[in-house]
Specification:
Blueprint: H1 3-38, H2 51-56, H3 61-73, H4 79-97, H5 103-120, H6 132-141, E1 144-145, H7 152-167, H8 173-191, E2 199-200
Antiparallel strand pairs: 1-2
Helix pairs in contact: 1-4, 1-5, 1-7, 1-8, 3-5, 6-7, 6-8, 7-8
Amino acid sequence: MREQELAVQRAREEARAIAAEQLSSSTKAREERRAVQATNNARSVAVGLDDETRALLTRTRGQLEVTLRRVLEGRRIPPSEIEDVWRTHEARVAALAAGELDEVELREQLVSLIQLYRRSFELNRPGDELPLAQLDATFMSMPTKTGHALAEGERRELLTAIYETYDAQDLSAIDRNYFKRLAVAKLIREHEAAPGEQVDLPDAPTQPPEPKRPDQQLPDTLPAADDDAPELTGGQAPLPSLDGM
């Protein structure tokens, strides 16, 4: 197979792997979360916990909700899972208002959720939170690392492979867009040149030198040197590279 065909196949496989891993973690977390929220006696959460967790238990419900939101937004969690977290939490708040749940228990459940999602999902990586349209445009135009040159058609083929992979899966619209973002961000991290790194850029068009006219004469004398101009020495540092990002 051609190198580009292998790259497309690898992009499809990695796209499927990203979704499979995230959905598996989401399923496990959802089962554990529902087990926590199903009980009316979560106060054992305070037994044998570290200092950080004990500190969480001193916070108000509002403070814990803010912390949980930051945890959910800062990790690689499918949007449908985040929506379900808040939907079930709202049901617990309604149970509190109806007298079916007490405030301490609800706070302890929030602490359990914060712990659960911190350990179940990894932090976002660079680019994960950017809009898909921006990631697409970046991948199509960015300079690539030396040895990783990608023509415009090759770049579009890789993106199309990723998009088609997720379009063929049974995913909600928000999760489908989310997984596309993760996969394209991964492509960018793999191929984009770091600042100051040698890059592969499209070849600039060249123009043939202008032919010398028969009547063109060289000047009799060269212009006088500027006495104030600094003299170049052998030890002078070279000019900075004009390589792209």
